[in-house]
Amino acid sequence: MRRLRIAIATVGRYHVLDLARELSVLGHDVAFWTIVPRRMAVRFGLPPAAHRGLLPALFPLVAVQRYGGCAIHRMVTPILLSAIDSLIARKLEPCDVFIGMSGLCIKSAVVAKQRFEAKVFIERGSRHILSQKEILDAIASPSGRRDTVPAYAVRRELASYDAADVIVVPSKHVVQSFLERGVPESKLFRNPYGVDLSMFPVTPAPPSDPPTVLCVGAWSLRKGCDVLTEAWRMMNGVRLLHVGPLGDAPLPQDSGFEHHDPVPQWRLREFYAQAHVFVLASREDGFGLVLSQALACGLPVVCTDRTGGEDLREFLDDPSWVTVVPVENPGALADGIRRALDLALGQPGVRNILGDGREKPSWRAYGARYDRFIRAQLRVATP
Predict the structure, then answer these.
(1) Beta strand residue intervals within 144-253, DSSP E
(2) 140 lies in the same domain as 276
(3) Could you give the CA distance from residue 199 to residue 9 in angstroms, rounded to a whole number?
(4) Are 181 and 218 in a shared domain?
């Protein structure tokens, strides 16, 4: 097997740290360029030798961006992105493959292609930036805010798409948003994200009374929490449990609603164990990682057609465990939740929706799909 030199460039950890770990396990020589400290990256499984730390050179700028307040954050973010991109471009080592986050990697992607003749993969976790902007700008925010995607972000995203040989996306609805804007299908690689199965084990069925619906993530309009609230109010005797930060959607004051502040990711399984059904009513979510977590813990999922739920059905022997409904449709969402509750309340004992196919949505399977695609692009034999 040919050992490939793979550079991965990012600001934070995101899903690409999981990718770096899995490609390293498969035998590749991975260089992970990031401002994430080595100790933190290693804690998530990155081999220490793969870490390429950028924080020391950028620390003053990072500190100002993170702790200077909202106005300073908005002003400094484009400067920081450009500085990180330029630093990676200057320090980049020879590579066969360059994998960079969209909106970040422009100069670095060009250097990888021109200096090292690397194949450039750009990771885009959400819909095409112009589609995303349209959706978010249409949300009627209580604050009256309309410009949800700044102009610099649009420019950087479009430039990174142009620099890519391949744009990597996580779901079918994201693919469609690129096709609608003239990006050829041959330039797209769809690879649904994975889940840490050790962190999200199967769970025993909770007591059936009250039937409990769980939502994890920001309580915001972007996540469709206003639509979820309206759908929930169409059902009697159902408990709605939320875990996550408070955003721009109003919290229900009705009895039966319960909010919990954000918890460490490993603690989410405690809440999955309390619930019968998981719901994500998002208006725009490239791929909801929480959907995979819920399925791994044994919960039926109800989600909109802009969450990646349709892609998860491919991993299930029985696709009915994932109900996909049209976005911004409270009635359809309520009907989907009712059907999912009927399924869930018939689950006795330990809930194991994934069954013998439990490895299919894992990070290991995600990395293996990526490896096969890279080898096909480079015409390198797969072991």
Answers:
(1) 166-169, 188-190, 203-204, 212-216, 239-243
(2) no
(3) 26
(4) no
Nearest to 216 by CA among 140, 250, 267, 253: 267
Q: How far apart are CA 228 and CA 382, in angstroms?
A: 45
**Could you give the strand order of the β-sheet that contains 166-169, starting from the edge strand earlier in sequence?**
51-53, 29-34, 5-9, 97-101, 119-123, 166-169, 188-190
Whole-angstrom distance, CA of residue 99 vs CA of residue 109: 8
**Are 50 and 100 found together in one domain?**
yes
Mean pLDDT, the chain, integer: 95
Tens digit of pLDDT for each residue in 76-85? 999 999 999 9
Residue 243 is which amino acid? V
Give the number of other Cβ atoms within 10 Å of residue 266's Cβ: 11
User: What is the C-alpha to C-alpha distance for residues 241 and 289, in angstroms, rounded to an integer?
Assistant: 18
Nearest-5° angle of CA 148, CA 15, CA 362? 130
Q: Are residues 63 and 187 in the same domain?
A: yes
Question: Tokens 């802009």 sit at which residue?
Answer: 306
Same domain? 182 vs 291: no
pTM: 0.94
